[in-house]
Amino acid sequence: MFTIVNKQILTPGVKRLDIRAEAIAKSVRPGQFVIIITKMQGKGVPLAVTDADRQKGTITIIFKEIGSATRELGGLAINDDVFSVTGPFGTPAKVEKVGTVVCASSGIGTAQILPVCRTLREVGNKMIGVIAARNRREIMLEPQMRLTCHKLILATRDGLYERRSSVREVLAGLIPKEKIGLVYAIGDVTMMEEVAVFTRQQGIPARVQVNPLILCGRGICGSCRVKAAGKTVLTCQHGPEFDAHKLDFSTLNMRLKALEEADEIAPPDQKPEVVDKFFPGLLRKT
Fold first, then answer.
1. Which of 148, 176, 209, 245 is deepest in the core (most CB within 10 A)?
2. pLDDT one-digit tens code per residue, 56-80
3. Is the pLDDT at 136 greater than 50, yes or no?
4. Among candidate residues 157, 187, 209, the one where a domain is terminated
């Protein structure tokens, strides 16, 4: 049984669930994700694993309620069961000692970047965290990021909390002060692309994690295809982490926008037809 043992509301529309999933808790690594189905014939929701407790046999997921499936998941209570939790899927984040690492996030990306930050610190890196948000209410996991990072910078769009800035502007301010060995970014496509362009200009390695449409998680359907280094690759097999300088952000952005339109249309048994409507030929191997 996959039972919800804890539930919290972090920010408006964003919830945290701790779910008992012993086998996954023992094997999951930072950067990987699971697919959760709340009930039989329900939609599968791919979600990054923010934390795992091997002793308790639980995993932590943090998600924003943006569609019918995530609203249904967010409506469950403590001691409720979910129909299935499968995974872990994806390639774990690459972890190495490079000196100073800047971990930048926006929106729900903070939930994905937190375990990566923790692991990068464990191998001896100096961690600088950057959380970008529209306002203070939308900043999540600030205490956890402060504990994980040697320094945390908050950049709000309205400027009413800490500073009015963007991730790119923060990076520009850090370069004269820090010898940055890596920038790791997770968040909206615009922010990640800006990081990719800026770090390429500065000669700094950069990595990102992406969240395209994922149906099977096993590389069978091809729904999570993205372009990297001029080649078509599968997020569930080769990602979700990619070299930011090699990723085609324009293609990724197009797929994500079409997914927003498709999200409310069909349950899993109708998804192939829905996906084919928005991405002609996507489910046919090429």
1. 209
2. 999 999 999 988 889 999 999 999 9
3. yes
4. 209
